[in-house]
């Protein structure tokens, strides 16, 4: 009769102690993002700008629309760090109010363009019969001169929407829609290319073989795997929307003159460029820093979300 095996070595092999929890993908993305100094600096600058323009008006004693004729055309001072304009309005308060509008337009237009581009890209890449018509539509929009098209849209619908929704809300919706429907094409092309590659992968074929519907394939398997290019397109879309809105306002086709945006402030300052050049400097600097910081964040996010680069 053989002896039973000693249970102690078996228990020692089985008891390996607590194992570390698996690292999440987003933790790896954040670790890679932190190594990109430009992206990290851009994120800090962008956070500072956002906090300043949205929290600053509650702490600053001057209102953006307050007129003080006795204090007009003053230079930078302790009372008015950015000076005052031709009506005595505090330029720092107007910069913060203008930043709220410009950033809000950039975010909203980006969401609209991202939604349209992702929808068209997924449909074109997943359904072969829709690929040709949707890509020809994308090529058509890419061939249009965008700035003249934006100018025509603003001129045609500005008065109508201002009369229905009011000057501020109407122009806001018009500019957001105009920018959104003319800037979705790069996202659609990027998403379509990724979907075409993904739908031939083994896990998609396995999900299809067990009877998964097209809707579940897209929402559970396709979209989560194309989030990386979508997020990178989002960062670049915000910068593009801010520049476009500033260009329209600078041309005098954006918001009303008494409704400050960074582009409108630039437009107003050009009349006093020789006498008060700092009025052009501040909104130009705000636009440049915002766009530059967003672009740096987009570069860092692209590197962090690329598994071929992550971990290097």
Your description of this structure?
This protein has 312 residues and is mainly α. It has a single domain (32-53, 95-309), classed as MetI-like fold (Orthogonal Bundle). The chain is built from 13 helices and no strands. The longest helix is centred in the middle third of the chain and has 36 residues, at 91-126. The chain starts with 6 loop residues before the first helix and ends in a 7-residue tail after the last helix. 34% of the residues are buried. The model is unreliable at 10-15 (pLDDT under 50).
Question: TL;DR of this structure?
Answer:
The chain has 312 residues and is mostly helical. It has one domain: MetI-like fold (Orthogonal Bundle), CATH 1.10.3720.
Largest β sheet strand count, sense and barrel closure: none
Helix content: over 70%
Cα-atom radius of gyration: 26 Å
Protein structure class: mainly alpha
Strand content: under 5%
Topology-level CATH name:
MetI-like fold
Poorly predicted runs are 10-15
Within CATH, the superfamily carries the name MetI-like
Number of helices: 13
Secondary-structure element pattern, one letter each:
HHHHHHHHHHHHH
The CATH first-level class comes to Mainly Alpha
The number of distinct β-strands equals 0
| Arithmetic mean of pLDDT | 82
Our count of domains comes out at 1
Q: What is the level-2 CATH architecture name?
A: Orthogonal Bundle
- Termini Cα gap: 59 Å
- General form: globular
């Amino acid at each position: 009769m053989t002896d039973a095996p000693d249970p102690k070595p078996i228990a020692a092999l089985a008891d390996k102690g607590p194992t570390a929890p698996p690292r999440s993908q987003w933790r790896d993305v954040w670790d890679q993002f932190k190594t990109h100094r430009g992206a990290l600096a851009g994120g800090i600058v962008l956070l500072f700008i956002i906090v300043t323009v949205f929290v600053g008006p509650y702490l600053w004693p001057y209102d953006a629309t307050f007129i003080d004729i006795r204090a007009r055309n003053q230079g930078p001072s302790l009372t008015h760090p950015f000076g005052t304009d031709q009506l005595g309005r505090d330029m720092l308060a107007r910069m913060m109010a203008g930043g709220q509008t410009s950033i809000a337009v950039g975010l909203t237009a980006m969401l609209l363009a991202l939604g349209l581009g992702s929808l068209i890209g997924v449909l074109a890449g997943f359904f072969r019969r829709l690929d040709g018509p949707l890509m020809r539509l994308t090529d058509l929009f890419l061939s249009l001169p965008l700035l003249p098209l934006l100018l025509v849209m603003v001129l045609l619908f500005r008065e109508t929407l201002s009369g229905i929704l009011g000057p501020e809300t109407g122009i806001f919706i018009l500019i957001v829609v105009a920018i959104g429907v003319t800037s979705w094409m790069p996202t659609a092309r990027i998403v379509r290319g990724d979907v075409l590659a993904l739908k031939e992968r083994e896990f998609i074929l396995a999900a299809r073989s067990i009877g998964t519907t097209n809707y579940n394939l897209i929402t559970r398997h396709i979209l989560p795997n194309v989030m990386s290019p979508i997020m990178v397109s989002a960062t670049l879309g915000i910068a593009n929307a801010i520049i476009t809105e500033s260009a329209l306002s600078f041309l005098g086709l954006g918001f009303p003159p008494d409704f400050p945006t960074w582009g409108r402030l630039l437009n107003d300052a050009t009349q006093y460029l020789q006498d008060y050049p700092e009025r052009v400097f501040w909104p130009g600097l705000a636009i440049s820093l915002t766009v530059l910081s967003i672009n740096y964040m987009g570069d860092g996010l692209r590197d962090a979300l690329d598994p071929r680069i992550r971990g290097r």
